[in-house]
Amino acid sequence: MASGGLQLLGFVLAFLGWIGIIISTAMPQWKMASYAGDNIVTAQALYEGLWMSCAMQSTGQIQCKVYDSLLKLEGNLQATRALMVAAILLGLVALFVAVTGMKCMKCMEDDQVKKMRMAVFGGVIFLIAGLAALVATSWYGNRVARAFYDPFTPVNTRFEFGSALFIGWAAASLAILGGAFLCCSCPRRETSYPPTRGYPKNAPSTGKDYV
Questions:
Q1: CB 119, CB 7: distance < 8 Å
Q2: Can you list the pairs that 192-197 forms with residues at least 24 positions away whose Cβ atoms lie under 8 Å?
Q3: 31 - beta bridge partners?
Q4: Among 5-19, 146-160, 185-199, which is the least confidently predicted range?
Q5: Residue 28 — φ and ψ, nearest 5°?
Q6: Is 174 helix (H, G, I), strand (E, B) or coil?
Q7: Strand intervals (E) in the chain
Q8: To 10 degrees, the CA torsion angle through 78, 84, 89, 92?
Q9: How confident is the model at residue 117 (pLDDT cuts 50, 70, 90)?
Q10: In the predicted model, what is the mean pLDDT of residues 14-19?
Q11: Are 160 and 47 in contact (CB under 8 A)?
Q12: What is the CATH number of domain 4-27+75-184?
């Protein structure tokens, strides 16, 4: 029962982490302008994400512009995109694999060993997906921090961490934790030893056997 509860907890955490990775990837707030500068009058905040850049006006209206060309993007941004998309696809595969190996599902009930292996395999894929998202968000955050502290970066072009980065870090942590729980949810096999044979007891000598 404890193993089944750990398995269910791991699946829920990994699933929530996968949803968070999708949300983080789609959000445009990967970095936000720390100082708009004197040249921008109507814009209240500037955001940049993996797919678009947005400007929120003082009236509350948000205008976003999708990046025009993939080839014009920086190599670091393209790599971050690829890692996040790979994390989403890996999480989708892990979702189906882990569901098949869940004890509460009726799939593969005739072979419990294979069912347990499917759950562990799903946990491993969730671990890889979480690590990919963690590398992508940490790499992007490192570049934002280095540009912010660079003295040659103009004040009006400095950016800080956006909310999508924090969601990505939390989601990656949940996916890794859930995958680890799934990997540890299988009970250990107990080694079965053949029953020990008792030694026959010597019958008490009555003295009649000897002449």
A1: yes
A2: none
A3: 48, 161
A4: 185-199
A5: -85, -5
A6: helix
A7: 31-33, 43-48, 52-57, 62-66, 159-161
A8: -170
A9: confident
A10: 96
A11: no
A12: 1.20.140.150
Per residue in 143-164, pLDDT tens? 999 888 888 777 777 888 999 9
Contact at 8 Å (CB) between 93 and 121? no
Query: Roughly what angle, to the nearest 10 degrees, separates helices 112-149 and 163-183?
Result: 150
pLDDT at residue number 84? 96
Structure token pair of residue 7: 């398995």
Query: From CA 54, how far away is CA 47, in angstroms rounded?
Result: 5
Residue closest to 13 by CA, chosen among 95, 118, 96, 103: 95
User: What would you measure as the largest C-alpha separation in the chain, in angstroms?
Assistant: 125
Are the C-beta atoms of 130 and 180 separated by less than 8 Å? no
Please give the Cα distance from 63 to 46 (Å, whole number): 10
Identify residue 57 by its one-letter amino acid code: Q
pLDDT for the residue numbered 138 = 95
Alpha carbon distance 88, 125 (integer Å): 11
C-alpha 17/C-alpha 67 separation (Å) is 27
Tally the C-alpha atoms within 13 A of residue 5's C-alpha that lie toward its C-beta: 2
Please tell me the pTM assigned to this model. Answer: 0.80
What confidence tens digit (pLDDT) does each residue in 80-101 have?
999 999 999 999 999 999 888 7
Structure-block tokens of residue 63: 């205008």
Residues 144, 145, 150, 156, CA torsion sign: positive
